[in-house]
Every structure is written in C-alpha cells, then in structure tokens.
User: Which sequence fits this backbone?
C-alpha cells in the first residue's frame, strides 16, 4: 500500500522489493543503526528432540553464521 510503513527484520533479499529508511543517516547494516531485533530460542533441555538439537547446533555453526552475514544481518551468538 502506498505510504505504508512496516517494521521487521532486515535482509538483503528484500532490497529489490522494499525501501529501507535511513535513520539519522544510518542504514540497517550500520553497526550503530538505532533499531535492532534479537531472535532467541527457548526450550526445555530435558525435552528437546534430536532434530531440534541439530537445528540449535546448526544456528550457531560457522556455516549458519556465514549465511546470516551474507544476507546482511548479524549472526546469532550463544
């Protein structure tokens, strides 16, 4: 919709379709951009499945960190 504003995560894959606003002349990939989100995973240790454990191991792996960085975001830290 023309004139609409939305808030969400940043990814370079959105660049062709979405216009990102600069805030105080800062772009979302700038370290001091004044808007950030944090994604976290919550689980009960004794009830986690093997598939969930494999996913959690993957999201902190060097491969996942490289994928996230290549998409223009900041990778998850443990």
Assistant:
């Amino acid at each position: 919709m023309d004139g609409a504003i939305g808030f969400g995560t940043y990814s370079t894959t959105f660049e062709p379709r979405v216009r990102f606003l600069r805030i105080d002349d800062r772009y979302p990939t700038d370290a001091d951009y004044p808007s950030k989100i944090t994604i976290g995973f919550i689980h009960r240790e004794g009830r986690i499945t093997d598939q969930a454990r494999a996913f959690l191991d993957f999201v902190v792996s060097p491969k996942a960190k490289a994928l996230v960085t290549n998409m223009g975001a900041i990778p998850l830290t443990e």
